Give the backbone structure.
Amino acid sequence: MVSNPAFRAVTLPDALPLDSGEVLENVSIAYETYGELADDKGNAILLCHALTGDQFVASEHPVTGKPGWWERMVGPGLPIDTNRYHVICANVIGSCMGSSGPAAHASDGKPYAMRFPVITIRDMVRGLVGLLDHLGIAQLHAVVGGSMGGMQALSLAANFPDRAARVLAIATTARHSAQNIAFHEVGRQAIMADPNWADGDYYASGSTPDSGLAVARMAAHITYLSEAGLTDKFGRRLQDRQSKSFGFDADFQVESYLRYQGSGFTRRFDANSYLYITRAMDYFDLAEECSDGKGSGLLADAFAGTPARFCLVSFDSDWLYPTSESRHVVHALNAAGAPVSFVELSAPYGHDSFLLESPELDRVVKGFIE
Amino acid sequence: MTAAPNNALRPDLAVIFDHIEPGSRALDVGCGDGILMAALRDQKQVDARGIEINGASVERCVAQGLSVVQGDADHDLTFYPDGAFDYAILSQTLQTAARPDRIMQELLRVGRRAFVSFPNFAYWRMRWALMSKGQMPVTRHLPVTWYETENIHHVTVKDFELLANDLGVAIANRWFFTQEQEIGEMGANWRAEYALFEVGRG
């Protein structure tokens, strides 16, 4: 974790009731906007970011200096056209780019660390709705998200059905599978096994659990790619050498790449945030969440009577949230009578395809939003 | 967005268009690029939904603001509730289904009425090609060889009527077409290149 640049943020006036039963006070939501808000406030699009994303969707990341994470999709004349739409992207609670999370300071002036309450996807959405209330936006033109952002989009549609006219959920799922949870648990155990983690109380020590967080990122990163994509990009090629070292250095290009991904990640992300957000994703089961112990737990019931239009997009090489999970949502929306579109796009890059060059995705996004 | 004028529709689709009540709900199974759906939405304020197997076609539908789900009639109809639609439409798709009989039942489960069109394999040119050459016919309307064709259940006007009878399905209307023109009922099983039926629950 590096120093805190000044983030644009709002402190919500009301405490946030959480699914755990706890209440989060003085909730800070950091956000960025792009494009002008119309006088009637009817042209707002909320973009929801993924696990390790942030509010810098179409502007330079203040820590890494890299371009926004969806700059190819969001901007003037692009599929999500900021000449027409007012795009809002907020850092979710639990994260570490200015919104309330384990690295933020609690009322005693010290970082929450593990005192931060365990949150859910719906809690993140409650924070986002708090931001919309602050901005005076009663109904979004659209809510859009990929991966964990898609979970938020679906949760917002189910829990706050009047807040979005269109819901676009890309490469996502309505529930975390055993395999999804399993990969996340590997990551969490890697972080917690790092001596620097110190039960999460590492902020004052100057030694952060970078090794554990890097391993977590490496394991997760594999799930964002496809076997074909890895083979195509790296194969068995060696890294800067002619022959194997007969040691444990990064002989293979793929090892070098993963190490680079892991170490780069530790410079911009908080290990405790990674624990909290992966937990929220693992807890995500929209059918269960919306039954509140009363209903049948059918996903269709979560969307009953929804006035929104939906579009789901999956990628054929995505094995993290495969097409079958999108279809599961589509079938529930069919059963609920909601207008829904669904397309499986072909792309070789696995789950990350939604962030990469895809003219087909561009056309679907642009067409659905208009 | 410009609506496809009614007269730009294929003749069977134009007939379907004419017989759908304004403001109703319709499910177009195998909706292709959404030409009929767009016309129904734009000119008749129909709440139209679609199912289409081809991803590129779905993409073009979504780009027009249509609600279309990528899927196939054999599997995806089951996820719609009973009576969700006033009309279910299956144009030129019945003969590609794994179980046309089950599709028929599903159409009339999700829709009050159904429009079903299909190429008539008993069209005289078919009969003649089969008889004279002894080979599976390749015609203007069914232009693909037997090993490449998606049409796995060839059906005739007579077969369809017998199926409707077996399923207890009521035939409300029938139209026949040859060379993109509507023709009369007389000798339809010989003369019609393709047929359109409007059916209801028996």
User: Anything to note?
Assistant: Chain A has a mean pLDDT of 95. Residues 9-176+286-369 of chain A form a domain with the Rossmann fold fold (CATH 3.40.50.1820). Chain A has eleven helices and twelve strands. The two ends of chain A are 40 Å apart (CA to CA).
